[in-house]
Amino acid sequence: MSNKPTGVFVRLPVTDEQAQEMYRAYCAAYASSSLTTRGTATQAALLAIGTPVTGGNLDPSRESFEKFYAQMCARATGHNTTPEYVSGLRTGDTYGGRTYLNNVWQAWPEYVQYSQSHIAALEAEVVRLREALDRIRLVPFPMMDLPAGIMHGIAHKALKGGAP
């Protein structure tokens, strides 16, 4: 996967502090250069409060589809289905195989987009959980003498999105 962000995950609702931070980032980006567009400034505002995500790097090509379809068929039937076999289905219509395959192929771009959005959301959740764990690690040592139930409550609140 690429390290270049393809999206930003922002947990809702946006707080007043986050809105203020977005406004400051927007104004700073817009004022920084005469070449800055509203879109670029808005992107800076979202990055100021959100978690950048790289999303999935799925290949929407026909070749990638045929590999995926062959794996899906092999798992479903237990037979050794190869991408070459799937590619061959396009040339001959065996019991409606070509029609079915082409219908699935038409849905492929939507599937790739759907998968990439879910991968991006999962990546953002992993980042959020790692940040929450880092905050838990920063709890001062004297507080570590708290009863386990209270420490569990602090951890639970941090992992659910609240402040520790």
Q: What share of the residues does DSSP label as strand, in percent?
A: under 5%
pLDDT averaged over residues? 75
Report how far the terminal alpha carbons are from each other.
32 Å
Q: Number of DSSP helices?
A: 6
Q: What characterizes the major β-sheet?
A: 2 strands, antiparallel
Helix/strand order, N-terminal first = EHHEHHHH
Strands of the largest sheet, in order across it?
A: 1-2
Strand and helix layout:
Layout: E1 7-9, H1 16-32, H2 38-49, E2 51-53, H3 62-77, H4 83-89, H5 97-137, H6 148-159
Antiparallel strand pairs: 1-2
Helix pairs in contact: 1-2, 3-4, 5-6
Please give a quick description of this structure:
This protein has 164 residues and is mostly helical.
What would you say this structure looks like, in words?
The protein has 164 residues and is mainly alpha-helical. Helices cover 64% and strands 4% of the residues. It has helices at 16-32, 38-49, 62-77, 83-89, 97-137, 148-159; strands at residues 7-9, 51-53. Strands 1-2 form a two-stranded antiparallel sheet. Helix 3 (62-77) packs across helix 4.
Summary keywords:
164 residues; mainly alpha; two-stranded antiparallel ribbon; 6 helices; flat
